[in-house]
Write a structure and sequence with these properties.
Elements: E1 2-5, H1 11-24, H2 32-41, E2 43-49, E3 52-64, E4 67-77, H3 86-98, E5 105-108, H4 115-123
């Protein structure tokens, strides 16, 4: 397995990423435009076996008046490859990348039903914060 930053994509890779995003959230509709913007505005990493993308994770880095912050987003591994350390390898690679911007706070969110993912994040040193998360979907 190889982990690398995705800088561009072809049609086959795009289809593989669409399938992965569907695993993460069946409501997710990944378009080529959204993926292109994501590649320009964040760091998207993929785990590959041969020509097959078997996992992905995204790192967003920014700065606010309270300091540098990073957010790990969209960590997903194809179902038949789960439990093999791929998600852990992806998150470790992102932590390594964000460490180049230290001091920085790294955050991520995960649904409670993703038991294995939540256990992984605790194992890697993330601490669960007591907070409320609010979301608002704006439409055209």
């Amino acid at each position: 397995m190889k982990i690398r930053r995705l800088l561009q994509f072809n049609t086959d890779q795009f289809k593989q990423l669409q399938a992965l995003m569907h695993v993460l959230s069946p409501r997710c509709v990944l378009t080529e435009e959204i993926l292109t913007v994501a590649l320009q505005s964040s760091l998207v990493y993929v785990a590959e076996e041969g020509n097959r993308i078997i996992g992905m994770a995204t790192l967003c880095i920014g700065c606010t008046p309270t300091g540098r912050k990073a957010s790990i987003e969209d960590v997903v591994v194809c179902p038949e490859c789960q439990g093999k350390g791929i998600g852990e390898a992806l998150v470790r690679r992102l932590i390594e990348e964000v460490g180049k911007n230290a001091p920085i706070q790294v955050q991520l969110t995960s649904k409670p039903v993703r038991v294995a993912a939540n256990a992984l994040y605790v194992k890697l040193g993330f601490v669960r914060k007591e907070t409320n998360v609010y979301a608002m979907q704006l439409e055209d």
